[in-house]
Protein 1
Amino acid sequence: MSTTSTTSKKSALTDPEQVPEAKKGRKKMTVPAFSARKGGAPLVCLTAYTAHVAHLVDEQADMILVGDSLGMVIHGMPNTLGVTLEHMIMHGQAVMRGADKALVVVDLPFGSFEESPEIAFRNASRVVKETGCTAVKLEGGREMAPTIRHLAARGIPVMAHVGLMPQQMNTAGGFKAVRGEDMWDAVIADAKAVEEAGAFSVVVEGVAEELAAKLTTEVSIPTIGIGASAQCDGQILVFEDMIGLFPRVPTFVKRYGNMEEMMRDAIERYALEVRDRSFPTKDHTYSAKKE
Ligand code: KIV
């Protein structure tokens, strides 16, 4: 039986003849090399959901996450709970066609890993097989340690995710940052449990700076912060948030561009030119072929 494999086909975006300057001399990031960056130069991580964005992000990023935030920023869902394994696999395949040097990690969506370590392995191995990604990410702390151990011991590297866990928004009553000191011990215990279970790195989302600092010193795997201050070993942002292509602007997002404005302007000018017939011009038009 053959599994769907798109990994052997070379992508049009990764032409070896046209290696961008920023990628020259860079080695492909591996899981051990990523873990070894603990306490070293900050790890640059971003999400990507399409091949071309992955191609661009790959010029700078150490890690590309195909996160389940794609449900919100690409598919217009109100949260990440409706994301399926099929969504993750499809976007994972697209990203793998654009990425070359960065470590590609794909999120396990809500409902695909919580039931048992065996089910988690079945779904995570589908993600790895069908996308060609190197590792998976899953949300959860102490309660997910047996699952992380099961996957890691069977060849699937796991990035964990603690602190604010968007997949638990219904139990938490929304997207709630962890600020009060009374909650710190639980988050530190989660981080230690996932480390001990074999996670190679841990995303720390929406926590107070003091907690991020403490946690980062107490675990030996790299902490990747999102809304978790500069105290982490690396940072991640959702690409669409970072370039200003998504209306939400949580406090922790810095907008490095305003793509929404650029796109609106381009659409407006196009509509105007179609309406007044100034587009297309002769430059964009075929003339009859002379035999
Ligand atoms: O889904 C996602 O984009 C994430 C990041 C916020 C870390 O999990």
Protein 2
Amino acid sequence: MNYPSRVHITEVGPRDGLQNEKTHVGVADKLGLIERLLQAGVRHFEATSFVSPKWVPQMADAAEVMAGLGGPNFAPLLDGATVSVLTPNMRGLEAALAAGAQEVVVFGAASEAFSQKNINCSIAESMAMFAPVVAAAHAAGVATRGAISCSVGCPYEGDVAPQKVGEVARMMQAMGVQRIAVADTIGVGTPRKVQAAMAAALAHYDVAHVAGHFHDTYGQALANTLAALQMGVSHFESSIAGLGGCPYAKGATGNVATEDVVYLLHGMGIDTGLALDGLVDAAAFIGKVLGRPPNSRVTVAMLNQRDKP
Ligand code: HMG
Ligand code: MG
């Protein structure tokens, strides 16, 4: 197999990971998590979302989180890092630009029903909403990414055809979105289905610009990561401590844990630039904040090792 020698990880824990938490996580704890992630070598992460606070209350403090990241103690840690945020519309983009975001993410879906539930509009309407966001971001010198949710399956529509993924990828490519993620939002995918969804996206984007974003609801995310690696995909989005879920994808559990992906990759001799021990520290930190153990086999194993006399 022709695996990449280096993989780029986008940490989505502070955003995808926390957005579904019912109890509000304070700004200081969000910043504490980001600080530890940066100390572990994270150089690309989703800090927050500039979305309607009525839709996702946990992200209502987006501007405060960004202000914290602009503070002097974060400057050395953020050197060489890209701070990414979600922006569904122009209102979100304007707030993101004012807050100093370096990259913005528009998030569409390959399923009509999910698009309606998540952003209250059809796929076509979402593309019309995103196009000016992408253009204005580029005009401001800010990078763009696009997420294609429900690329394999949808909580409302069931199986999603790869052709649907291809259509959204084509529209995102046409509006100038620089990178995309093929997302298995509800973690139902298995390797061949994920490879078919990836292939549909790769018809419109170079492999260097496509990421895998796998939730682990059915325990398939590492297998799907390997399947994508085998296609030459070298960008993955993952969440510290396996946090996460989407408020509009009932029952979907967390993203694949960053620690588990990194253990897999390092074990295969693939470089990530991340320090596993530091990731475990970050996972343990957020586990304490949330009052539950990290949802990562690697973190649990490594914490058990640390506890040994
Ligand atoms: P809407 O209700 O159709 O839009 O929501 P609206 O324009 O009528 O706005 C409703 C209210 O929100 C108004 O306030 C707006 O001002 C306000 P009111 O007048 O009622 O007081 N509003 C905003 N406030 C702050 N920032 C904004 C903003 N926009 C409007 N940007 C909308 C449409 C898109 C805004 C809404 O549906 C929304 O915010 N959805 C976000 C849902 C979300 O964040 N989902 C999770 C992220 S996606 C995900 O997790 C998947 C991913 O991980 C990949 C994967 O796994 O699949 C990326
Ligand atoms: Mg997600």
